[in-house]
Each structure stands twice: as C-alpha cells, then as structure tokens.
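Dissemination and training. As part of the outreach component of the grant, students in the summer workshop were shown how a complex can be specified as a set of sequence lines and then modelled as a single object. The example used during the hands-on session is reproduced here so that future cohorts can follow it. Participants entered these lines:
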Amino acid sequence: MDRLIYTSLTALRGAQARQTATANNLANVSTPGFRAELAEAQALWLRGPQVDGRAVTSEEVIGADMRAGTVISTGRDLDIAIEGNALLGVQTPNGEEAYTKRGDLQLAESGLLTTGDGHPVLGTQGPVILPPADSLRIDREGRVWIVPQGGDPQLPQEVAKLKLASPVGSPVLKGLDGLFRVPDGGILPEDLEARVKSGALEGSNVNATLALTEMIEASRSWDVQLKMIGDARDLDAATAELMQLPQ
Amino acid sequence: MGIGALHVARTGLDAQNFRMQVIANNLANVNTTGFKRDRANFETLAYQAMLTPGAPSSSQNLYAVGFNLGTGVQMTGTARIDLPGTVSTTGNGLDVAIEGAGFFQVEMPDGRIGYTRAGNFSLSAEGTIVTPDGMPIQPQIQIPDGASAIAIAADGTVSAAVPGQAEAVALGQIETARFVNPSGLQAIGNNLLVETAASGAPQVGAAGIEGRGTLRSGALESSNVNVVEELVDMIETQRAYEVNSKMIQAADEMMRNASQNL
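and obtained this result:
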C-alpha cells in the first residue's frame, strides 16, 4: 500500500494547526496589546536509499507578529500606549520578569499596579505599589506621579518609573501565558528612549483581512490534501484490483 | 483540531457578544443621571504547548522557537470609566452635582450604604431628602414643615427659610465619600454602587476638603456616555463578530469536506 496518505496526513495536521492559530488571532481581535501569531510550514525531508521524493511537513507557530496595533484614545488615566517596539515589564506568578504590550493598567486594593490580565507591573525598582493618592498621572517617560492623599495638587511626587524594555538585539519569545520572555531566562535592558502615551490604549495588531486570507488558504490546503488522500485511495484500489487472481 | 479552530472561534463570538451587551447598556443609559460608561476587558485564554522552545530537536540542537496554539479569548470583566459627565443646570434647588471626586451616600432598604453620583434628590412625605427611589441620603437631612428656599452650599450645608425666623437656618450637611480606587466599586443598579474589597474603605467628610469635590446645587451630572464613541465601538464589535463567525464557517466546511471525502 502506498504511504502517500501518511505524507498527506502530516499536511492535514499542519492545516489544522494553522487554522487554530488563525482562529486564535481572530478571537483576540479586541484584546489590548495582543500580538498575532505567525504560523509557518516546514518541510522535513526523509533521506533514504531511494530518491528523496517525499517531504512531510511540520506546521509551527514560529513567533509573534510584533507590528504595532492601532492606538485609540480612551481618556482613562491608567491606560497607556507604549510607543515603538518597547515592551512593558511585568512579573509572572513565579517571580520571573516577562514583557507585554498590554497597557490597560489597573490598581488593585493593595495599591499594586497590574495589567488588565492581572500581572503586576514592574518598575525600575521592582513591582509598582502606589500609596493612597488623590490623583495619578503617568508621563511620557513612564514615570508615575501621584498627589498623595490630602496633598497639594500643585506638588505631585514621582513614586515609580515603569520598566520599559528594549527588545532590540535580544530574542524574545511568546510564552504560554501570552507574555514575552527572553528564552534562557535573561532580562531585557531598559529602553531610555521609550515613550508612553497615557489616556490611550494600543489595541490588538491582528489584521482581520490578512487573517481571513490565511483562513481561506488553510481551508484550501486542507481540501487539496483531502483530494490527495482520495486519489491515493483510488490508486491503492486500482493496484489491489490488478493483483486480484482471475476468477 | 479542525474542531479546535471551531471552539477557538466560538470563544471569540462569546466575547464579542458580551462586549455588545456592555455597549448596549452604555447606550441605554445615555440619559441616566450620573451614569459612568463601562468598557469590556478581554484577555487571551491559556495556550497549549505543542512544542516547548528549548526542547531538544536533535542530539546537539534545541528548538529555538516553540509551537504554541492559543485557545481563544475571554471577557474578564468590565472597567467603569470614571470620567466626569457633563454638568447641566436644571434650576431645581434639590438637584446637586459633585464637581470633582466623591459620591453621595444613600441608605439602602437592607441598611447598607450605597454610593451614587446622581444628585437628583427630592423630599419625602416626611420632609427627608431622598433619591427618586425614596432612599434617604446619609446623614439624613430633615426639612421642617413650611420651610422654603432650600439651598445647598458648595460644602454641602443645607439651609432653608423657616417660618417665624428672619435668617436662613442651617439644617444639616450633605457628606460625600471618596475611594482610593473608585473603579473597584460594584454597580448594583438603581444608579447605586457598593463598596468592595477592591475599592477600599470610604473616606467620608464634608464636600470640598481632602480631595472631595465641591457641590453645585441646581445642576445635575449627566452620564459620561459619548454616543458617537459607543456607535464606533458597536461597529467594531459587529465586525469582530463577523470575522469570527466566518472562521466557524470555514472550520465547519473543512470538517464537512473531510467527513464526506475521506
């Protein structure tokens, strides 16, 4: 029996994985700071005594699309859009440093500043914890200014500076929690040129048109492979017929 | 996992559906006194690790990149946008707007204190200052029979002309409460919010001091809903819903094709 169907099967698996990745991109079209995943197929050649006539494919999510998302103005003090390719430092539940583009910051009961998905925001001196304040402002350089409770509104105090990291020159991977990390556990250097815009929020960078095209492509590639399997089945049936003993 | 794509797209439909409900509620409350608009918050669901970066790809090499498939999106909650609404003059002496931070305190039927920015007060049959639902504001202020020219000062002092007295008599003071994290208050309907662990304890006192806003009588704070903004959000939500339903259609066709042709 021809093993062609197994080669086609790998391609079917690839098309499925790619479709799931595209579905996830489309589902996150409204998630602040979301970075779309990029899927890519790779040919794995099997070297053997015969001709190298067959390559199985392995579909992979090779990384994230780091292009900027659209920035929309929200007017909320704690929303920040991080300009350029700088990333905001956050702390993961096991204490590591990770990075995100998500800028819808929230103030927890304890005064801890977190992102909208609950990760504590890192300042240059560790997690940012704010004392009770009358007002709060984040400036262009990512410094957090507050007017302490009952304080003079004319005299704001700087209480922290957000860790804005530069991913230039370092490999950054998207982890299972959607946060970016340096693969071997390293940390990114602070980006002194990074600027933030408060009162605005960077949306998801999913390009719906592109994602829909990818969706159609994955669907078609699936159909073609199904056709291939059908042909392999016909070939196999024909061979079996030839080999039948005359009645 | 053709089925996987189907479920991932479904999470997208669910999330956009909730978001539409939030927008519908904002639009429905466009004329509600003191209403603050909500914004839907999204987060990605867990990722499935198909291949961990750093795992060995051969005896010498490690995979430099991972193969992680996302499982979709969920709405984590709503964030109330506490921007002030437009203050409009009504001329009614018992309409009060707070200019700045703070909430009026209202005693709810269950004895708890509710907090509100809606200052459209009136008098009960007994002369108490109450909300349109009849809940007395805290501390309770009683207007004596026959009093006229009720005035509320910027610091919350309520005075009125009482028959038989030449000068206006001070009858009490409206106190306001402010919170460290007002977005942590929970909305319970009837224009009321209640304290939660996230909002912190109320800091109660006279209006105009310790960061509390001053009061303006004869005016009302309208909702901070911007209709144009909501309509734009609505279109965006609708489009996002559409692309996710297209995805469901595509995943379904893939599976149908497979089941018919394999």
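Residues 13 and 242 of chain B are 8 Å apart (CA to CA). Students were then asked to discuss how this feature might be tested experimentally.
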